[in-house]
Amino acid sequence: MSETKHEKIIEYIESLSIGSKISVRRIAKDLKVSEGTAYRAIKEAENVGLVSTMPRVGTIRIKKQGKGNIEKLTFAEIINIVEGSVLGGRGGLHKTLNKFVIGAMEIDAMVKYIEKDNLLIVGNRVEAQKKALELGAAVLITGGFDTEDEIKKMADEKELPVIQTTYDTFTIATLINRAIYDRLIKKEIVLVEDILVSNPDYLTLKATVADWKQMVKETTHTRFPVVDEHMKVVGIVTTKDVAGADLSCSIEKLMTKNPVTVTLKTSLAAVAHTMVWEGIELIPVVENKKLIGVVSRQDVMKALQQGQKQPQVSMTINDAVLSGFKEEEIPGGIRLIGEITPMMTNHIGGASSGALMILLTNAAYAALRKAKFLDTVVENVTVYFFKPIQIESPVSVEAKILDMGRKTGKVDLTIYSQGSLVCKSLLSAQILDR
């Protein structure tokens, strides 16, 4: 696929007004590219939050959401969540709803709670649907009911979606709450876009070792991405690469080609893991393969330390498993004490492997923190003995450090239940330092 065509399509999509409908065939025809090229570009646009694709609706241009309002949902996203279809008001699918109201009361009482940009969840009550549209709210009709043509026409005129779903009201409220809850969790996850250094220093393919030395002198940094004439990252150059080279030697000949890159939406955890495993100190950040920033090992470590201090608002599975366990110190390590709850079990009532892995890895992290190693990445976990643990059994997880080097550590992990040994494991971790 031609990168130039790909970029041309992305730029075209960015230029469209919010709410515009997008199709592979239309883009292929208008921009004179193949349908395969158009399809791949649209998928990329969806990945970066420029468009959204919905069953029975198609692909539309949407407004990119920042982290500040990630918990807000558009009407287009509501359709995906409730597996719905649009009866009218397609022009407003890109709009964001600020609240949803359940229509389980008389219309006069309901009016007090309906405001502009709300979503009224209601069954086959035409008058309630009409009143909601008059007040500037969209409508979600439950139970698979259709509505009158007057309502559909009114929705089109006001650009307020009327959505149909086969689910009942209780299920709808649960699904929407779950979606908002998931977004709150995602909001707390640190991404590359939160820590990157924008407008970074870089070298071009025409640069020489002399240019590199001058940039080192000006910036006090020693690692720089290398870009071509289109600002696409083609390499990275460090002190090791230029050591002993003549001042007139081309950077293109010395640089490390095809370096690891990340995007704005890459998680900090993934970046940390890559840096540890690949031994990388600096990673270029790209958008459509063009350089937009860099992240350094020091930036990543600082963000990890800050993240450990910040309380989470929303509970992840990890939090839910650990919530019933308390931590205490033992000679050479730590111990987690708790009980196998119903949520931690598999389909036959025993402790699930996923829940046990959460206990093992978090016990190891706690032991490493006690040894003053705050930032670690799991390298390998080996479980070499295991017996089933039944529901509601008390368990204790002991983590003791076996060996600790400058960059690696090994932790011995043991789980006891009702006085019996039920699991033995060995965890290796790499330490993320400055």
UniProtKB/TrEMBL annotation:
<protein>
    <submittedName>
        <fullName>Predicted transcriptional regulator containing CBS domains</fullName>
    </submittedName>
</protein>
<dbReference type="InterPro" id="IPR028979">
    <property type="entry name" value="Ser_kin/Pase_Hpr-like_N_sf"/>
</dbReference>
<dbReference type="InterPro" id="IPR036390">
    <property type="entry name" value="WH_DNA-bd_sf"/>
</dbReference>
<keyword id="KW-0129">CBS domain</keyword>
<dbReference type="InterPro" id="IPR029069">
    <property type="entry name" value="HotDog_dom_sf"/>
</dbReference>
<dbReference type="InterPro" id="IPR006683">
    <property type="entry name" value="Thioestr_dom"/>
</dbReference>
<dbReference type="Pfam" id="PF03061">
    <property type="entry name" value="4HBT"/>
</dbReference>
<dbReference type="InterPro" id="IPR051257">
    <property type="entry name" value="Diverse_CBS-Domain"/>
</dbReference>
<feature type="domain" description="CBS">
    <location>
        <begin position="196"/>
        <end position="254"/>
    </location>
</feature>
<dbReference type="InterPro" id="IPR000644">
    <property type="entry name" value="CBS_dom"/>
</dbReference>
<dbReference type="InterPro" id="IPR036388">
    <property type="entry name" value="WH-like_DNA-bd_sf"/>
</dbReference>
<feature type="domain" description="CBS">
    <location>
        <begin position="255"/>
        <end position="310"/>
    </location>
</feature>
<dbReference type="Pfam" id="PF00571">
    <property type="entry name" value="CBS"/>
</dbReference>
<dbReference type="Pfam" id="PF07085">
    <property type="entry name" value="DRTGG"/>
</dbReference>
<dbReference type="InterPro" id="IPR046342">
    <property type="entry name" value="CBS_dom_sf"/>
</dbReference>
<dbReference type="InterPro" id="IPR010766">
    <property type="entry name" value="DRTGG"/>
</dbReference>
